C-alpha cells in the first residue's frame, strides 16, 4: 500500500486510473488500498535490496531454538508482495510449491480492504503457508482477537518478524501523530524484528493533492501533523527512542526513493546477536547515516 514518490510514477498512476471506475482512482483510495498497486511498485524492486538469506541470518538453522518462523505482513494489499517475500526468503522459483517449506515460514497477511484480501486468497500459490485476513490494524479489539488466534495455533505470543511496507503514511494521514506513534508501538509489541518501508514526506503531499483533484475531502490530520520532514529519520527516532527497538540495517532505497529499514527489539540482543554480514554491509555503504545525524 503506497503512494507514488517520483513525478513519472505519479503520472503513470494517474493515467492508469483513467481506465478504472472513478471509485478506484488513486485519490479515492484513502487507506492506500490501490487495486493495481503492484503495477506501479513491483515486488522485485524491494527484493533486489533484501538478502535472500536474511531470515536464515536472523534465525540460524543451527541455533538451539530453531523452529517455525512466524511473520506478520501489515497492509498486504492483494498479496503480490507477500507471496514474493515468501518465495524470496525460501529461495523458491516460479511454479515451485514444495510442501516442506511451509514448515519453515508462515505468514499472516492483513489488509483493511476485503476485496483485496479476497483476491489475495484466491491467487495465493501457497495457501498452507500464507493466511490472509481482513483487519483494520488500528481497531484494538479486533486486532487482539485475530492476531492472538493465529499465534495461539503455534503456541506463540509474538511474531518473529513483521513487515510494514509503505503503510506508515496511511496510518499517519488517517490517525494523526498519535495514531502513528501507537501503530508503531503495537508493531513493536508484536514482533521481535521489524522491516519497515516508510513513505517520504513528498508522498504525503501527493496523496493530499490527489484527493483535492478528485474533489474529495482532504485527510483530516494532514495540516495538523507535527511529525513531518525526513520521515525515515522520524520513524527511526520513534522506534529507537520510544519503543525499545534497535536499528540493525538500512538495505538501501527502492527506485521510488523509499528506505528499507530493519529493526529488532532490544530484549532479543542477548539471545540473538546481529549477524556480522548485516553490520558490515551497513558500515560499508554508509546506510545508517540518517540515524546518526
Q: What is the averaged pLDDT score?
A: 83
Count of DSSP E strands? 7
Largest sheet: 7 strands, mixed
First and last CA, distance? 29 Å
**H/E order of the elements?**
HHHHEHEHEHEHEHHEEHH
Structural class: alpha/beta
Rg over alpha carbons: 18 Å
Q: Strand arrangement, largest sheet?
A: 3-2-1-4-5-7-6
Number of helices: 12
* Unreliable residue runs: 1-24, 283-293
Strand-residue proportion: 15-25%
Shape: globular
The helix content, as a percent range, equals 40-55%
Q: What quaternary form is this?
A: single chain
Give an overview of the whole structure.
The protein has 293 residues and is an alpha/beta fold. The chain is built from 12 helices and 7 strands. Strands 3-2-1-4-5-7-6 form a 7-stranded mixed β-sheet, sandwiched between helices. Helix 8 packs parallel to helix 10. The longest helix is centred in the middle third of the chain and has 23 residues. It starts with 6 loop residues before the first helix and ends with a helix. The N terminus and C terminus are likely disordered.
Please name the defining characteristics of this protein.
globular, single chain, 7-stranded mixed sheet, disordered N terminus, 293 residues, 41% helix, disordered C terminus, alpha/beta
Amino acid at each position: 500500500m503506497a503512494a507514488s514518490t517520483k513525478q513519472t510514477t505519479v503520472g503513470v498512476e494517474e493515467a492508469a486510473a483513467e481506465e478504472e471506475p472513478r471509485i478506484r482512482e488513486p485519490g479515492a483510495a484513502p487507506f492506500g488500498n490501490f487495486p493495481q498497486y503492484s503495477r506501479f511498485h513491483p515486488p522485485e524492486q524491494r527484493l533486489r535490496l533484501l538478502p535472500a538469506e536474511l531470515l536464515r541470518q536472523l534465525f540460524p538453522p543451527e541455533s538451539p531454538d530453531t523452529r517455525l518462523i512466524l511473520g506478520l505482513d501489515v497492509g498486504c494489499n492483494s498479496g503480490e508482495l507477500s507471496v514474493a517475500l515468501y518465495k524470496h526468503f525460501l529461495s523458491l522459483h516460479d511454479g515451485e510449491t514444495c510442501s516442506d517449506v511451509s514448515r519453515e515460514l508462515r505468514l499472516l497477511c492483513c489488509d483493511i480492504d476485503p476485496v483485496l484480501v479476497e483476491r489475495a486468497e484466491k491467487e495465493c500459490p501457497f495457501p498452507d503457508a500464507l493466511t490472509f485476513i481482513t483487519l483494520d490494524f488500528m481497531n484494538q479489539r479486533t486486532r487482539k482477537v485475530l492476531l492472538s488466534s493465529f499465534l495461539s495455533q503455534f503456541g506463540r505470543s509474538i511474531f518473529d518478524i513483521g513487515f510494514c511496507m509503505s503503510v506508515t503514511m496511511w496510518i499517519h494521514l488517517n490517525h494523526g501523530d498519535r495514531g502513528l506513534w501507537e501503530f508503531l508501538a503495537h508493531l513493536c509489541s508484536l514482533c521481535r524484528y521489524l522491516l519497515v518501508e516508510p513513505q517520504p514526506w513528498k508522498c504525503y503531499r501527493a496523496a493530499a493533492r490527489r484527493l483535492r483533484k478528485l474533489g474529495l475531502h482532504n485527510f483530516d490530520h494532514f495540516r495538523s501533523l507535527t511529525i513531518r520532514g525526513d520521515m525515515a529519520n522520524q520513524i527511526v527516532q520513534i522506534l529507537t527512542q520510544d519503543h525499545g527497538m534497535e536499528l540493525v540495517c538500512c538495505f538501501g532505497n527502492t527506485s521510488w526513493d523509499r528506505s528499507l529499514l530493519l529493526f529488532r527489539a532490544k530484549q532479543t540482543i542477548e539471545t540473538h546477536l546481529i549477524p556480522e554480514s548485516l553490520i558490515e554491509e551497513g558500515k560499508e555503504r554508509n546506510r545508517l547515516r540518517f540515524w546518526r545525524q
